Amino acid sequence: MTITRKNISLATALQCPRCGRLYDAGILQSYATCCQQPLITIYSGDLPDPSFLNGREHTIWRYREMLPVMDPWYIVSLGEGGTPLHRLSAVSQKLGVRVLLKDESMNPTGSFKARGISVAVSKALELGVNHCIMPSAGNAGGALSAYCAKAGIKATVIMPRHTPATLLEECRLHGAELILADGLIDRCGQIARQLVKETGAFDMSTLKEPYRLEGKKTMGYEIAEQLHWQLPDVIIYPTGGGTGLIGMWKAFREMQQLGWIGSKLPRMIIIQSQNCAPMVQYIKNGNLPEDFQAYPSKAYGLAVPQPFAKDMMREVIQQSDGKALTITEDEMEEGIREMATTEGILLSPEGSATYMGLKKLIEKDWVQEDEEVLLFNTGSWYKYR
Ligand SMILES: *Cc1c(COP(=O)(O)O)cnc(C)c1O
User: What is the mean pLDDT of residues 275-289?
Assistant: First the structure.
């Protein structure tokens, strides 16, 4: 007897964003080897007016038709997504623009990495993976460890030695194999690639695997739904590997196709730490030298010196008429204190960078009075001790 299961996803294939070559989504894939680009999931078919979402659970899986898992049996969920979108009234008053904050620290494992990892681990389980490897600056490794524990998949995480102790302990508690490396995330990536060769484990590095992007794109769907399908004028995003930035932009395009939102899209702003700002350099000068100088940042999620998806990020900035700018380590501290005392919210350094970035944009007249601006708190302050 064969059990027939319902296919809940409209995903049909993977595609190279550069040359359009199609890749089979029915087998394990990493990235578009034709053009050295991340692989993009494509969906076909129509969906009705989004009111059909009403009554579904408030996790990322409420958008399951636009996620890649075919059989719901394989979904590995800890309740990710459905995070609050706050209107910051005191800050709005002070700055003269309408400020929103998407608080991603409320996700399982304390960061928005949970969104991407939930989808990637679910899809890996569906495709028969039994061992995942990932280099991580902190939050992704914790999320991978938790979701792999739940899925019954072995996890190996490689982290910089200077990573805060809480994050290391989190991986160990979830039963992951933890390897510490000297240097930043790119050094961890080298070790990961070597281990993948030796063990045959599946590489879950940022955008070297297609589905973390799909998980992160749900932020785009959620923001649209929470704002009744009217997107803000500006989105300020603390950027490391760029999964969320590229993912949200993909979500906006998909929702336009579905007829859920109109033609006007937000201006997308990349915020990086002054200690490690490869995208600011890349967008300004059009090149990123291999020996690009980068230093650790307390915003460890942003310390990615050589992001694999730099071309796609630059396109988002160009297409959205956006910008890329930096914030110093001291400014991040200042932002944490200001938000804690004015709004009662504790920001991660990355989240604080988006707030301080907004203040800079206002100073330079790049955000107009009464525009609506969305900030991101991507991780929990409690994970930086
Ligand atoms: C990973 C991470 C980021 C960067 O996210 P990307 O989508 O990879 O650019 C920002 N903030 C925190 C807290 C993170 O963990």
Answer: 96
CA distance linking residue 282 with residue 287, whole number of Å: 5
Burial of 262 (0-12, 13-18, 19+ CB in 10 A): exposed
- What length is written for the chain? 385
Chain segment 143-193, per-residue pLDDT in tens: 999 999 999 999 999 999 989 899 999 999 999 999 999 988 889 999 999
Domain range for 44 is 11-57
- Contact call for residues 133 and 202 (beta carbons, < 8 A): yes
Name which residue sits closest to atom 10 of ligand 1, judged by CA. 301
Cα torsion angle, 288, 291, 297, 299, sign:
positive
User: Sign (positive/negative) of CA torsion 113, 119, 125, 129?
Assistant: negative
Question: Per residue, what are the HEC states of 56-122?
Answer: CCCCHHHHHHHCCCCCHHHCCCCCCCCCCEEECHHHHHHHCCEEEEEEHHHCHHHECHHHHHHHHHH
Which residue lies with its CA nearest to atom 3 of ligand 1?
301
Tell me how far the alpha carbon of residue 240 lies from the centroid of ligand 1, in angstroms.
5
Residues 126 and 272 in one domain: yes
253 Cβ contact list (under 8 Å, min separation 6) = none
C-alpha 320 – ligand 1 centre gap (Å): 20
Residues 78 and 105 in one domain: yes
Instruction: Report CA(345)–ligand 1 centroid distance (Å).
Output: 19
> Which pLDDT score, from 0 to 100, does residue 5 have?
67
Residue 131, domain CATH:
3.40.50.1100
**How many domains, in total, are found in the chain?**
2
pLDDT in tens, 109-126: 999 999 999 999 999 999
- In contact, 351 and 358? CB cutoff 8 Å: no
> 265 and 244, same structural domain?
yes
Asked if residues 161 and 151 have their Cβ atoms less than 8 Å apart, the reply is no
Which atom of ligand 1 lies nearest, measured to the CA of 138?
Answer: 15
Q: Would you say 231 and 252 are in contact if contact means Cβ atoms under 8 Å apart? A: yes
